[in-house]
Design brief:
Largest sheet of chain B: 5 strands, mixed
Number of strands of chain B: 10
Shape of chain A: globular
Largest sheet of chain A: none
CATH class of chain B: Alpha Beta
Oligomer: heterodimer
Largest interface: A-B, 35 and 35 residues
Order of helices and strands of chain A: HHHHHHHHHHHHHHHH
Strand order of the largest sheet of chain B: 1-3-8-9-10
Distance between the termini of chain A: 36 Å
Distance between the termini of chain B: 21 Å
Strand content of chain B: 25-35%
Radius of gyration of chain A: 19 Å
Number of helices of chain B: 2
Helix content of chain B: 10-25%
Number of helices of chain A: 16
Order of helices and strands of chain B: EEEEEHEHEEEE
CATH topology of chain B: 60s Ribosomal Protein L30, Chain: A
Radius of gyration of chain B: 15 Å
Helix content of chain A: 55-70%
Shape of chain B: globular
Strand content of chain A: under 5%
Amino acid sequence: MNDILEQITRKIDEMPRVSEAPYRLLKVVSKQDYAIGEVLDIVETDISLTTQCLQMVNSAAFSLPNKVSSIRQAIVLLGSNAIVQIALAQVFKSIFATSMRGYNAQPNDFWEHSIRTALASRIIAQNHLKGIPPDMAYTAGLLHDIGKAIISEFLERSNEELTGKLRDSEMSDFLDIERELLGTDHTQVGEAMARKWKFPEALVAVNRHHHHIVNCPEEFIVLAGVVHIADLLSMMGGNGTGLDSLAYGIDHHVKNYIKFDRTILAEVMLEIDMEFINIKNKFNIFSGDEHVE
Amino acid sequence: MSTKLVGIGEIGISANPSDIVKTMALGSCVAVIFLAPKAKAAGLAHVALPDSAIGSQRTQNLPGYFADTAIPNLIAGFRKFGATRSSDLIIKLAGGASIMDPNGIFNIGKRNVLAIRKILWQNRLGAIVEDVGENFSRTVWIEVGTGRVFACSPRKGTWEL
C-alpha cells in the first residue's frame, strides 16, 4: 500500500461516527415506503436537529406568514418532502462544508452539486421509471459524492502534479486521475465512508458505482443508474465540483435500465432547472460563509 | 465597477461602461454574447436548451432559457440601445460543453450551439468567435466599457475570447 493510500485509510478510520439521528433518518427514507411519523419521531427526539430545522423553516427564504414552533406544524405548512430535505441537509451539513480546494471548487459548489443531483435523481425516479422511491433517489443523489470530502484534501497536497496531469491529458475520466495520483478514487473512499457510517447498502452501492454501474449489485443497479445520470445532468447544468466537472462519461449500461431520448432529456433538464432555481435560496445553508476566489 | 450576474435562462444587457456582465458555470449551456460598439452596449443570454417547444410556459420569466426565444429577445433588447442593423453587432458564443457520450444523446451542448447558429443565421447574424464544446465548464464575463470578453474554468485558468 502506498503512503497516501495509507493516510487516506487512516483518515476514514478516524472519522467521527455519525450520531444516531442521521443514521436512523437514512434508514427510514431509504425504505420502499415510510410514514412521515417515522421522520417526525427522529427529528423530534434530537434537540439540535429540531432547532436547526425550525431555524431554517422560520428563515426569510420560506416566507411563512407566522412563526412555526413545531416540526409537526412545519410539515402541515411545507409538506413532508421539504422536512425530509431540511433534516438531511442539517445532519450532513459538515460534509458539504468541506472546502474542496483540492478540486479548485468554490465554497458552495459541493453543496449545490449534491442538491442538484438529489433533485435530478428524484425527478427521474418520480417521472421516468417505476420502482425507485423518489425520496430514496433524492437521498442517494445527495450523498453520492461524500468521498470527495476526503479525496479533496489529498488532491490539494499533490496540486502541482495534478496541474501537470490536467494540462497533458484528454481527461475522459477523472477517476483515472484520482487513482493515478492517490491510488484510490472518490467512489472507493465514498464507499468506505458509507460503510463506516453504517449507511444502508443502497447508499453504499451508489457511492461505489455511480460512475460505472456495470459492477453494481443487481438490486441497486437501477438506483445507481438514476444517480449516474443525475450526476452528469447536474454537471451539464453548470453545477460541478470544480476541476472534475464534466470530466466523466456516460456508462451505456444505463440504457438497459432507464429509457432516455433527446426529448426526455431536455424535459428533465428543464424540470431540474425550474426546481433548482426555486429551491436554491431556501437551502443555501452556507450562505453566511466567506466566498474565496 | 459593478457586476451584473446573469442567471440561467436570463438576459443581461448594459450600456454602463463601468459594468461587468457575467454568467457563471455554463456547462452545456451557451452564453450568446452581443457587443454593440457604436451603441456602447453589451450583454448576453444564458441559453440552457435549444427549443421552446418542450415547455415555454414554464420559462416565462426566463426569456433567455431557450435558443429560439433568447435570440429574438436579445435582438429586441439591443434595438433599444440603437443597434438596429446586423452590422451594428459583434457576436460571440461560449459554452456548450459535453460529457463523453459516443451515442450523443447527452450532447445537449452541441445541440444548443447548432440551434443558436441556425437562429442567428435566420436573423442574418453570425458569431465571429465560438469558444464552444469540449468537456469543461466556462464562466464568462464582458467588460462593457472595453467590449472585451473573458472566460475562465477551474481546469484552464482565464483567457480572452
